[in-house]
Every structure is written in C-alpha cells, then in structure tokens.
Amino acid sequence: MASERPFVSVIIPVYNDPRGIRMTLDAVTNQTYSSEGYEILVADNGSTDNTRDVVRKYAERFPDLVHLLVEDEVQGPAAARNAAIPQAKGSLLAFIDADMTVEETWLEDAVASMESNDWDYMGCNVEIYIEDGKDTLTAKYNQIFGFPIRRYIEDQHFSGTGCLVVRDTVFDEVGDFDERLFSGEDQEFGNRVYDAGFDQHYQPAITMYHPARSSLPELLKKHFRLGRGRAQMQRYHPERVEKPSLLNPRNYLPPHPIRFYQRVTSSASLEWHELLLLFFIAYLKRLSATAGWVYEHFSEDDG
C-alpha cells in the first residue's frame, strides 16, 4: 500500500533554466510511485527570466504535487536546496537538478533501495548523453569525464547532489548545505555525513540522465565556478582540504598526457586530431578552474 511506504520530497533547485526545468518536471511528475506518496519542491534561486512562470504552470496542473519556493537572497544551489529542506514533508529527500531526467520508476526504485537496505545516504548513477544537433568535441569531453559518482562515494565520501537520496534524519544530525560555497557544497555535506558515522552507498542500478555541455564557454564557466568553490572550501573548511601556494607551478600545468590518453581511449574511439583537441579542452578547463581559484583568493584579500 502507498500509505505504508515512505513519503518522498523531491527537491529541484533552478536558476534561469525554463527548458531544463520543463524536462525535469515532465519526468518527475510521471512516476509509477503513487502521486499521494511524494511531493515536488522546486526552489527557484532568483531567476530573472520566465523560469518561475514555467513552474507555476506545472503547479496549476499538479496542485497537490508541484510546489514553487523562492530563494532570492542568497545565490547558489546550496541556498536553494536549503530553502526547500525545512519545507519538505518526506522522510526521504530525493535531489535532482533542473535539466536532468529519470525513468518513470526512478522513485519506486530509489525507495526500494533505501528501504530494503536500510540506507541513509545513496548516490545514483549519472549517464551523460549528447543531445541531437549538439555533438561537439566539448560534449564528447563532458560525456567521457562525466560524473564518476562511484569514485566520489568510495574515495571522497560524497555524492553529487543531482543524484542524491538522503533520509531526513541525516539533516537533523549534521545540518544543511553550506551556503557560503559556490560549489563543492555536495562534497562538504557528504564529508560531514561520513564523519557523523552514517552509511553511504552507490546504487548503479538507478540511472539518471544529464545532457552534455556542448558549449566550451559553458564548460569553462562551470569550472571557473568550481575553482572559486575550491578556494572557498579552503577558506571555510581548511581542515578538509590543503591550501597550496598560488605560485605552485602544478596549478598551471596541463594534464598528464599519458594518463589523459589512457582515460580517453578507454571510453571512446577517436581520431588523433580529436584527441589533441580534447587535451586542449582539458587544459583550458584546468586553467579556468585555477583562474576561479585565484580570483576567489584575491576577492578574499580585497574583503
């Protein structure tokens, strides 16, 4: 019976992404899990386009299922998720990012995994796919390197929040996401969960789908933000990360060519010119992340 199964709160942060939130809401409103057994909380993070209007239309179509929340004071996905957590009615909180899609059995399978195994914290598999008309080298790079959730959980004790299911009792114990971090809040939260003694698991049987970033400027912008997040992690949580010197040349060197070659050729069959261009993209990505890291350090000094 649906009443005997846990109530689930699906939490989706979104910012200026009307197309992405449509894709995700189409998927999460079409679940085999009873509509009386879950809610969808969309936390808009101060969008300046028509994103909220899109969400409102879904809320009108599914008044008991879809709910719009607004967090426009603090910018960042951590703040958006934190706005939804205290409003969540579920004993299980399932996080998914706007622009991601799932199978119609996603919630059914997630609940079964959490309940049958008595898990507290679960990360799911994420498959990067290339959309029609967007088969660029940047998209191929993104698809190859993607989201190694298993490695994140096993080696670094966290899952990306776009594919995370957590019991509400975990938040009661360790607190919410750190809103001071532009990125890396998923790792910092997961590390607190691990330190508190909760179990963490990877579930490869549940796949969630994320479109590849096909634009190089988009990819570099993302990694600039990741670099800022790394500097903020060093500032606010120095016990968790090293704080190397800005003058260390390793921060500015290209990826190790042999390891890069082995990683790429194990995942895809490419021509030599494509390999060289992918290596160039990887180097630009590293430089962009380093630029964000340096920028954040200078911002700290100015403050």
Automatic annotation (TrEMBL):
The keyword Cytoplasm does not apply. The keyword Transferase applies. GO terms for molecular function: transferase activity. Pfam families: Glycos_transf_2 (PF00535). Keywords: Transferase. Residues 9-171 form the Glycosyltransferase 2-like domain. It comes from the Archaea. This is Glycosyl transferase family 2. It comes from Haladaptatus litoreus.
